[in-house]
Specification:
It is a single chain. It is built from three helices and 13 strands; from the N terminus they run ββαβββββαββαββββ. With about 210 residues, the protein is α+β, with helices and mostly antiparallel strands. A hairpin with a 7-residue loop joins β11 (about 170-175) and β12. The radius of gyration is 17 Å and the shape is globular.
């Protein structure tokens, strides 16, 4: 098992590491270690606790990470077409108190071109953002549109994803809600270029 130390900037005014940054960073590290294909193959991702410091440790292994398992609060697995796997996990490395680096995250730009129809949101892919950076705010926007009348919180946390494949250069994103309010976890299916790729899960964040 290899352990890499990283420092990741907070997005906008958030006081925790955004799930999109952890998703992208962990997947990139898996690919750098030669365990995962650039595209295709199953991708799973789960956040058990928010990381409130910008300094983290990321573990990479060819087997499930069981040593100090509870301390690894974010976990990802990548399964390639030939069933060779990589398991990646992240945990805080600092004291969790520092403000951390910051970078902008223009979610309004991402959702400005989308279309919402019933329980579905669709959008073209933008070149300025990673794919997961677009999927998450689009899903959040859909949740807010669907639940306006129920007066549910407008804060949502990206806590889990399970994709049958993860494309590199799709042209379109389509997200369909699968959960009625109220619920503890909200599930949506995600399609790229008309092909269903998997599911993304959000949890409502109490204000």
């Amino acid at each position: 098992m290899d352990i890499i130390k990283k420092k990741i900037a907070f997005k906008g005014t958030r006081t925790y590491l955004h799930g999109t940054d952890l998703f992208d960073e962990m997947r990139a590290i898996g690919q750098e270690h030669g365990y995962a294909p650039a595209s295709s193959g199953r991708v799973t991702f789960a956040v058990n606790n928010m990381i409130e410091g910008s300094e983290i440790e990321i573990a990479v292994s060819e087997a499930p990470i069981v040593t100090d398992s509870a301390t690894w609060v974010v976990k990802m697995s990548l399964l390639s077409a030939d069933e060779s796997s990589v398991y990646i996990a992240a945990r805080p490395a600092g004291n969790g108190q520092e403000a951390g680096l910051r970078k902008p995250y223009d979610e309004e730009k991402i959702v400005s071109q989308c279309e919402v129809s019933g329980r579905r949101v669709s959008s073209g892919v933008l070149a300025d953002f990673s794919l997961i950076e677009q999927v998450v705010p689009l899903n959040k926007h859909l949740r807010m549109c669907l639940h306006t009348e129920t007066q549910l919180p407008t804060n949502w946390l990206f806590v889990r994803a399970d994709f049958k494949f993860w494309p590199e250069t799709p042209q379109n994103i389509e997200i369909t809600s699968q959960t009625d309010a109220p619920a503890r976890i909200y599930k949506s299916t995600v399609s790229f270029d008309g092909i269903e790729a998997g599911e993304i899960y959000f949890m409502e964040a109490k204000k």
